[in-house]
Queue: 2 jobs
Job 1
Amino acid sequence: MEKILVSRCLLGHRVRYDGGAHGPFDQLGLWLAEGRVVALCPEVAGGLPTPRPPAEIPGGQGALVLDGQARVLTEAGDDVSAAFLDGAQQALALVQHHGIRLAVLKSRSPSCGNRETYDGSFAGRKVAGEGVTAALLRRAGVQVFNEDELAAALEALQALDCS
Ligand code: SF4
């Protein structure tokens, strides 16, 4: 049975930077009941506390953080790249351990965002880009969806289940 990596905050775990969470999402509940879900919060796994200061990637490209060409910074200018990279590596290790080919990650997060992130200005400005974990998983061939793309994720899962 295909397993799915899911952002912990989408499962109601209060791991967001502000101590909040998201959900419930019916589809994620079904996958949990089927035993498909492998849950991870890359930032907490990387050693950051909850709550924690919000962080953004100037330019919004997690792939550049992976390549050492950009950093993840708090508004105060603290460099939290190492924790973000550690969390991304833990996500990759889980994916490899479980043979995961599909992830549902929280949109717009500097770790988990799969299509958009904030631009580093802390002014609420979004850019096309990915979080650090999302970028690493995509490089590893994982299909990454967000919580607004659960129908597409289900379709992708059914295609993998049939393959
Ligand atoms: S978006 Fe990702 S890193 Fe942020 S709280 Fe959710 S699981 Fe953790």
Job 2
Amino acid sequence: MSRSVLVSGGSRGIGLATAQRLQSQGHRVAVLSRKGDGAEGLLGIACDLRDPAAITAAVAQAAAAHGPVEVLVSNAGVSIDRLLLRLDDEELLEQVETNLLAAVRLTKAVAGGMARGRWGRLVYVGSVVAATGSAGQTAYATSKAGLVGLARSVARELASRNVTANVVTPGAIDTDMTAALPEARREAIAAAVPLARFGSAEEVAAVVAFLVGEEAAYVTGAVLPVDGGLGMGH
Ligand SMILES: NC(=O)c1ccc[n+]([C@@H]2O[C@H](COP(=O)([O-])OP(=O)(O)OC[C@H]3O[C@@H](n4cnc5c(N)ncnc54)[C@H](OP(=O)(O)O)[C@@H]3O)[C@@H](O)[C@H]2O)c1
């Protein structure tokens, strides 16, 4: 069945791979990014996720084109590596607003339609560091940990409407976000991963697609790692 899908941060990386996978399954997919880039077959919508009014407008635009949003993949994120003592307030705000507050606002904007339609899927892209902690990523890990509370609360609020809410927690994935790391740091990270390599955006997209599908109808409030074993035990 073709669904109306909205993916935040769908211009590249994990969001783009997820959007393309869901589009190839026959869904109608809109993607949000600051410039509004949309790869072939995707509806690109410009939306700075730090702006609440832009979020409301973007959800309305997606719904006008594809029908009320039935699947939200809240994926957009930024990471600014900086020890807490050196982190300035704007860097803190950028990460919390983009990674966490935008996810809450997007959820609020789509939840009514999902409840009315008696079907919905909310998938949040978190991070392994929310559970393990990470030096230099205090604000980032804090924002990602918040997604778990968000998902589990809306999982309870919307369960009677047949809406599920889950978090996928990637480990080290090959995208622009990790390409910026020095080679020695990338090697050290890969060495800490039991599967001894970075994952691909497509490997995360496959797990998101599972959660979106009918097969995952009885999965809600779950935190599903896609991390090569990096976060095992947390
Ligand atoms: N890569 C990893 O190793 C890794 C590990 C764990 C978790 N994650 C999480 O996975 C998600 C995707 O990461 P990625 O590696 O694919 O990152 P990426 O390649 O850097 O892509 C980030 C996406 O977020 C969008 N974005 C950022 N700020 C935005 C804003 N203010 N408004 C609208 N869109 C914004 C970007 O769009 P534009 O820049 O085009 O506007 C882009 O589409 C993130 O939440 C990240 O924290 C990644």
